[in-house]
Amino acid sequence: NAGVTQTPKFRVLKTGQSMTLLCAQDMNHEYMYWYRQDPGMGLRLIHYSVGEGTTAKGEVPDGYNVSRLKKQNFLLGLESAAPSQTSVYFCASRPPGTDTYGYTFGSGTRLTVV
Amino acid sequence: AQSVTQPDIHITVSEGASLELRCNYSYGATPYLFWYVQSPGQGLQLLLKYFSGDTLVQGIKGFEAEFKRSQSSFNLRKPSVHWSDAAEYFCAVGAPLGSGTYKYIFGTGTRLKVLA
Fold it and tell me: At A84, is the secondary structure helix, strand, or coil?
C-alpha cells in the first residue's frame, strides 16, 4: 500500500546509546519531515528536507541528525540518546505545490530512553 | 508569535449528538488551516484544510470547519457523532519555511470521548 512507513515501531534505548529511525515513502514526494509528539505539546518539527540531498533544522533539532541520501528515505539519528528524547516520532511527506498542502503521516515510532 | 490554541483538552459527547471542537490561531498573514485526527496508536489523518475562498470547508467523515477571520478561529463541527469518531483531534496552521515548503504549528489537541 502506498504511504509512509516508519521503522521500528517501538524501541527502548539506554541513555547514551545511538539509533536511527527510518522513514520510507513510495509516493515520490519531494518534501519530508520529522516531528516529535509529546503529551500536552502537540507535534513539533525536528528536521525537514525539501529534496534528495538536502536537510534543514526545524524547531527542536538539538540532539538529532538527519540524512536524505535517497528521495524516498529520510533517516533520523540520535547519536547519544537522553531521557528527554523519550517521545513518539512521526515522519511525514508531501508533494510540492500549493494545492496539495496536506501531509501524509507515518504511524509513528514510540521511543523510550531509560 | 505564531500559535494555535485548542482550549478543550477533553470533550465527551453522546453518540448521535452534535460536536464542535474549538481552535484559535495567531498568525500575521492569511493562514492555511488544517484539522487532523489521530486514532490511538496511529499517525495523523487529514480531515480538511482551508487555504482561501469559501470559509466553510467540508472534509472527510462528515466533518466541516468554518474559518472566521474576525475571531481568528477555525472550529471543527459534526452534526451527529459516531462512536468511531473517538480520537484525538489536532488543529494546525501552516507557516512558510521557505524553499516552497512550510511547517505545521500544531495545537495541543482535543481528545474526544463518545458515549454509547
Answer: helix
State how far the Cα of B107 lies from the Cα of A27, in Å rounded to an integer. 27
Which residues of chain B have a CB within 8 Å of the CB of A21? none
Q: Please give the angle made by the CA atoms of A62, A68 and A74, to the nearest 5 degrees.
A: 75
Do residues A112 and A13 lie in contact, with contact meaning Cβ atoms separated by under 8 Å?
yes
DSSP category for residue B69: G
Closest CA to B91 of B20, B10, B25: B25
**3-state helix, strand and coil shares in percent for chain B, rounded to the nearest 5:** 10, 55, 35
Query: Residue-wise pLDDT tens for chain A (114 aa)?
Result: 669 999 999 999 999 999 999 999 999 999 999 999 998 888 999 999 999 999 999 999 999 999 999 999 999 999 999 999 999 999 999 887 755 568 899 999 999 999
Cα angle, residue A89 at apex, residues A41 and B3 outer, rounded to 5°: 30
| CA closest to B44 among chain A residues | A105
Nearest chain B alpha carbon to A103: B46
